[in-house]
Amino acid sequence: MKRYLLAHDLGTSGNKATLYTTDGHLVKSIVYEYETHFFNSNWAEQDPEAWWQAVAETTKAILTDISSKDVAAVAFSGQMQGCVCVDQTGNALRPAIIWADQRAQKETLELVNQIGMESFYKITGHRPSPAYSIEKLMWIKNNEPEVYHKTYKMLLCKDYMILKLTGKYATDYSDASGTNALDLNTMSWSEEIINAAGIDKDKLPILAASTQIIGGVTSEAAKVTGLCTGTPIVMGGGDGACAAVGAACIQVGDTYSCVGSSAWIALTMDKPIYDEDMKTFNFAHLIPGLVMPCGTMQTGGASYSWLKNELASFEVLEAKRLGKSAYDLINEKAKSAPAGANGILYLPYLLGERSPRWNVNAKGAFIGLKMESKREDIFRSVLEGVAFNLNVILNSFKKHISVKEMVVIGGGAKGELWRQIMADMYGIPILKPNYLEEATSMGAAIAAGVGAGIFDSFDVIHEFLKIEDKVYPNRDNTQVYDKMLPIFNECYESLVGVYEKLSKL
């Protein structure tokens, strides 16, 4: 009799439910999309009930071909750094403020003034930023006191789903390390930060390992999802940490990059990397005892999506006519432009920026446009601009560790051109595994398997993940990019004052 592991990956654009056999075979994957409300320039919210509907509907759809009795365990991966305020009955009190939201600038400054940027960085592994959960909860306290007063617990995205399934209020260490309130040295909530934030500590959930069975499916949740009452729900983790396992980034020194809506580069280490300029940060890994130094930019794949939607209407229409992907046509066009996009640089700051700039007022820009500039140059510049920004992050890590190669996952890893640009720019081989958009859910599924006692350790990922393609650097292109990277950085620095003025209009 086959046994199955069900993983839900709650991303920015939707939930992906994926069913795996316990020997690592992907059986079925279903996506349910939900909306993000972007407003006030850099605010971003989602409806937590839309997440729950997505989980319930995809679970029922997944179970149409198998018996729910054969599901050994369920685990979650979720978008990190959000803020979901729930009351004592488990109801969300307002829309969730998600990772992309940058409204809590005043609250961030309060923490900097009270604790200091460097001291804060050494406690949490992160600098204070509006991107994180505790600053968002502070904003709610300052601006929506009635909501704050009613808040029983602040949860993260996946935690709210676990609450709906089990009735338990908890989070794991990887997600907790994205709240800006976890002391990474003691793996406990930081009293110093909580006091400085003016937050009631009892509003934070209990902490649990990613592999802990947090509870069983309640009878009420079983009716909604089709799961059996009592099915074990394993904690899982934040999407970045789950993706690390799904990319087989589980040994010290392993490196991977994910290019989804946001994009990041991360390592697996046994201790944090404290960057002297604080460009990068550190999460707790999904694997107990390890950490995940990381640098995350706001609009990686989102820049690519913006390009498609706003500047590639011809390719979109042509793709429909041909029954192809619009991105494939964009890539074909971009491939005809040379490395360096004939002198066009794209600054990928459409939602402000986290790592490496840490500037909520940063804006996107095309620099170097000429009368002879062509659409293919612009298309290629967007792919290169994202890679340039990630390369700034990578170079921060290279001060501390030698990076020999990199696994790349996420939707952005599908395109051979983008992988080649990364290889050329980073000067290292880029590896494409057999699971790209499923890597995050696979990490969650392995956590479920370890938690349920099916797998002895996370090393089982090496039995599931296979490298399908390896792209090597074109050294001629590397030389071009090496010359352009300082100009890319100079473009950003030159516009910092302009961004500040634009933000005040």
In short:
The protein is an alpha+beta fold. Helix 2 packs across helix 4 (133-143).
What does it look like?
- By secondary structure, the chain is an alpha+beta fold.
- It has a domain at 4-246: 2-Layer Sandwich (Nucleotidyltransferase, domain 5), CATH 3.30.420.40.
- The strands form 7 sheets. The chain has a 7-stranded mixed β-sheet with strand order 18-19-17-16-22-23-24, with helices on both faces. Strands 3-2-1-6-15-14 form a 6-stranded mixed β-sheet, with helices on both faces.
- A hairpin with a 3-residue loop joins strand 16 and strand 17 (263-267).
- The protein is globular and about 65 Å long.
- It starts with a strand and ends with a helix.
- The mean pLDDT is 96.
Helices and strands, with pairings:
Elements: E1 4-10, E2 14-21, E3 26-33, E4 37-39, E5 43-46, H1 48-62, E6 71-78, E7 84-86, E8 96-97, H2 105-115, H3 117-124, H4 133-143, H5 145-150, E9 153-155, H6 157-166, E10 170-172, H7 173-176, E11 182-183, E12 188-189, H8 191-197, E13 206-208, E14 213-216, H9 219-225, E15 232-238, H10 239-246, E16 255-259, E17 263-267, E18 281-284, E19 291-297, H11 301-311, H12 313-322, H13 326-335, E20 345-347, E21 365-367, H14 375-398, E22 406-409, H15 416-426, E23 430-433, H16 439-451, H17 461-464, E24 467-471, H18 475-503
Helix pairs in contact: 1-6, 2-3, 2-4, 2-8, 10-16, 11-12, 11-14, 12-13, 13-14, 14-15, 14-18, 15-18
